[in-house]
Each structure stands twice: as C-alpha cells, then as structure tokens.
Request: fold
Amino acid sequence: MEENTLDVAEVIGYLKNVSFVLTTFILFIFPVFFLTNTTDFFVVPKQILIIVGTILLLVLWGIRILLEKRLTFISNPFNLPIVIFGVVVLVSSIAAYMGYSGLPFQLNYDSLMQSIPVIAVLFLYFLIINTYTAKGNFTVGLSALSGGAVLASIIAILYNFKIYVLPFPSIQTQYFNTFGSAIQFLLYVFPLLLLSVFYIRKNVKNVEKTTIALHAVGAIFMGLGILAVIYQIITLPQKPILLPYLHGFQIALASLSQDSQRLIGSFLLGSGYGTFLTDFSRFRSPIFNQNTVLWNVPFSYSSSYFLELIATTGVLGLLSYIFIIIKIVKTRVRRVNPLFITLLVTFGLSFFLPFAFSLVFLLFTLLGFYAAFLNIDGDKNVSEVILSLVALKNGLFTMQETDAHLQGRKTEGKLLPGIVLTIIIIFGAFIGYWTIQYIRSDMTFAESLSRDSLNSGQKAYTLQIQALQTYPFRSDYYRVYSQVNFALANSLSNSVPKGSKPSTQVQQTVLTLLQQSINSARAATTLAPLTDVNWENLGQVYRNLINVGQNADQFAIASMNQAIVLNPSNPLYYIELGGIYYQLGQYDLAANAFRQAVNLKPDFANAYYNLGHALQQKGDPQDLQTALQEYQTVQQLVQNNSASYKQITDEINALNKQISNQGNKTAAQNPASQTGGTAQNQPPLQVANPTPIQNTKLPGKLPGPPPPATTSSPAPSPTGTPAATPTPAQ
Reply:
C-alpha cells in the first residue's frame, strides 16, 4: 500500500515537472515563434502555440488533480475579474450576430477565431499561478519570459545589420522582427526591459553578481533591439500606420450607440471580440476621407486596445477590463515591486496604443506572475483553496471551498476531479481538433497563394478546395476562391478564338467555374454578413456576369448597395456602383453615384473623372459643359502626376472639340479651386469597367445574393475540380 502511494506521489511530481518545463518553454518561445508557411507569419502561429500549449497544460493539471483526489487552486483578487472578462469576450463573439434580420442566433466565426486564443491566454494565467508556487521556479519562469524578449531583440539587431541567421528566404530583410510589426515589437519588449531594470535596481545588493550580470546583459540587448527598431521607424520611407486616436474614439462611441438593428446587444457586448475592422467600416466618419494618407486604409485595430474593447465587447467588456485594473491597484504593496510597476505600465499602454495578440498575451502573463508573486510573498488576500463535493443528508451534492490547512477534515475522492478532467478532455479535444484543422487549412491556403501555385492555376485551384474542405468557416477563403474560379473561367472563355464556338466540354467547364464563383462569393457573405468586402466581391462577380446570366445586373446593384450600407463612408464603393449603372447605360444613376463619391471625398480625382464620363455619355450640351468642368477639376487635382495629367489633358482637348462641333462655348471658369489642391494617395484615372465573360450564357436564373444575415449553418463545401480546368493565360 505504501509502495502504491509512493508511486502516485512520483507520478504527481513528474506531472508537475512536465507542466513546469512546458509552461516555461511556452513563455520563452512565444515572442520568437513564427511560421513562413501560413497566411500570416506571426499572429496565427502564436495563437496556435498558445491554444495547443494551454490544452496540454490543462490536461496535465486535470490528471494531477485526479491523482491527488482534490481540486486545488490559488485564490487571489484577480480570479473573479479575469473570469468575468473571459465570459464577456466569449459571449460577445457567440452573440455577435444575434438580433440581425430577426434571426435569434448566428455564429460569427471570424470573431470566435480571435476570441478562442484570448480565452486560452486567460487559462494560461491560472496555470501560471498554480505552476510557479515556489521562489525558485518563479524566478526561472519570469527569466524565461524576459529571455524570449532578449532573443527576439537579438534577432532584430542581427537583421538590422543584414545578418540573416534564419534559413528562410521570405524574411531576409533588415526590417524583419519576430512580431511582424515594429510597433508590436516595441510594445512587447519595452515592459520587459522596464521589469529587468527595476529588478536590477532593487536586487543589486541582495542577489548574486552572476544573476545581476545576466539580467544586465539581457537588458542591454533589449535596449539595443528597441533602438534598432526605432531607427528603422525613423529611416523607413513608409512609417507604421496607426488609426488616429480621435477616429478610434469616435468609432468606439458610434459602435455603442448607432447600431439600430442591435442597439442593446451592441451597447452591452459590442460587435464581437476581434471584429474591429467591421466597426471601422460601418462607423467611421466621412471626415476620415480628408486624411490624404489614410483615407483608403482599412484598420483591423483601433487606436488603442481600450477603445477596441469598447467597440468589440461593449460596456460589459469595458467594465470588466476596468475591474481588473482596480483590483491590481488595490493590491499595491508599500515597497517598490518591479512586477506591479511593469503591470501598471503595460495596462497604461493599452489605453493609448493598439494591442495585437502578442500584447494581450504579455498583459495577462504579467498579471499571472504578479498573482504568483503575491502567493509566494504570503499576501493575506491570496491562499490555496480546495474545492470539494460534499454529500448532503438528502443525497445530493454541493460544492464547497476548503482552506488547505483544513483539507484533512474532508473526505476526498475522485468524483469532482474526474468531472473536471472529463470536461477538459471533451472541450480540449473539440477545440484542439478544430485548431489543427484551422492550421492545416491555413497552411494549404498559403501554399495556394505561392508563386508556383499561382503560375500553375490548376494547383492553386486544387489547394484552395482542400483548404475550404478542411476548415469551411473562413469567409476570406471563400472570397479568394470565388475570384480564382472567375479568373479560370475568364481565361478559358477568352482562349476561344473570336468567331468560333467553344466545345461542349469547354463550355461546361466554364459554366461550372462560374457557378462555383457565384456560390463561393455568396458563401462568404453568408459566413460574414457584416463584412463589406464580401458583398463588394459578390457585386463584382455579378457585374462581370451581366449579359451572361439572368438578373445579374439587379443582383450586382443589390450587392453593392449592401456593401455601401456596411461601409457608407467609402467613396470607392460609390465609384463601383456608378460603374454598374454606367455599364448598363443608366447615366443619370451613374452620375448620382459618382456625385456621392465626390461629396464623401472632395479631392477624389477618379470620382470627378467618372462623373465627367457619365455626363459626357449623356451628350446634352449642358451635360457636356458640366463634364468639361469635372475634367478641369481632375486636371487641377492630378497636376503633380505627369501620366494622369497628360491623360486628362488629352480628354479635355477631345471634349472641347466635341463641344465646338456642337456650336457651344467652352466653360469660362475652372471650379477646381474648391477641391483644396492636388490629390494624393489615389488610384489612377480610369472608368470603372468590368471583366466580362465572353462566348458564354448561364442557363436558368442566377442565385441571388443572400440577405444581410442568415442562419448559422456552415457554408457549403466546394465541389471537386471540374474536368479539364485550364491554366490561366500568362
């Protein structure tokens, strides 16, 4: 019997050691972990690392508590606010589409993909507290966290001097760092540099000189890494782009108060964690278009993490986040504590700067270490608690907390630990399976976008089918897949010589590709009905099928109007809508759409250019005069662009001849002074034209665009490769 007890104790000790090593490894490797075979080299791999690592750690913890026959955890002031914050993040993602179009429920998969890694980070917070319970392993864990930042700094320094130490050709640039962003690198390394400096200052007389020397060397490398990245930011011709704080604040407030279809839900829970891009599209002010540099830049992050939480998790997310900060402030101790100061600085940065996933990881990891420190330091607000199932007289069971020193007075059993382990295994297996499917799909899709695959055409097409079948919940995959289908169909159709009839096989292949293009574009809007680019893509697909499929023109207009509803301040969408009317010969409607683009952005040269063409097509003398004025405005706006200036000058001369031939006088005044100068950061002058399919007619009626919100059923999986799918023309 004693031998069995000893064996169990050895297994428990082994599990603790494995958990300690795995947690320490995750903390060290996280800042430098990236993959070059995913669609996103930096964020997605780090998210996968945390999800998989946290699941493994939870399973190890579940097995340990089962062997110990007790559920033990460290009670501290932060547990409750962390749980509340995690619940709000998860519920905001699950309920993101609730209330739209009268539907009771629809999953927002894009939001869930962002919230699950954050939930994993919150679980890691609890695991850190329960792993680093002694001063020795606490020091090792915190050193691993700082060591990862030191290694990331060394890599950034080496690459800054063009010393490419990693064998990946795709990252061989002197501006590379393992976060993929100069701002995110600085925000991650700076708090840990601050922590090291305060640690050295506090312990320089109390700790061995070797330990202090190691921390000093690490601090030097982090400082040099920060200086190298700051130098890169200063010398780069294109600076890092951040959403101006005023616009971030405006969007946060608008997201709480202007979502008329879901006012209460948006106010309480926001749009769903990680979906700021949709908030930016829906709620940005037209004033944003006055920014000549940023007007056409989509922002996935707000001006600060705090403002992003307001927009994506609502008032409840805001309050739960503030609740965490209040609890931290209340634990302030009299003597200077490096972790406390670092934690406050990191939380302070979240109020003024955007946080990607790496910074969220750092924030809650530091909080976990601070709670672990309070436990080791014997803080009165922190204690070990055992959660037990206690039998009542009526035969039922209840949950009860027991202090560690009273544990011998309770009858311990495997029931509660067994239940907890079962829950961990079930949910861990479910999340783990879809995480593996997600990363497999992402790697496959990334391969389809490689140069070799795109040059082949057939290979890209096949790989994208595999990616969608592996993980059928990413709307952006369907959007790209629809474009690939259309490109293949267009290439095959245009390869048929003019005047000749395509073979039955070629025609059937083209029809199949076009049908898959439509279905995939519709699937994207089904999965993410509030993402404007999905509707814009669907509108483009329908537009390219005008005169090919029945009702394509109506569906194109309806889809573009929905894109405008979801991004009403985007002048480019009005250009595209006007282009559809222009293609249909409805020049009055086209001119109205182009005028909307002009109103949204008075210095938009292409809007005036398209408006001028719509008026010129009408051909009336007064319209020709107005068209000339629009062209003169364009000429003023593009005077610094020689190619565009020559183009519009030639068109002005041609229009003057047309007006002269009608016996009219040219416009005496040039209204261009109202635009405020020359245009900057704008697309080249062109009339919005489609890419129509030739020699093809789609039989029957086309499927129309889905409503803005649909049921939560997953999008249909794509069909297999049609026979004789061609390679696009080079």
Notes: The beta strands are 71-75, 383-391, 397-403. The two ends are 77 Å apart (CA to CA).
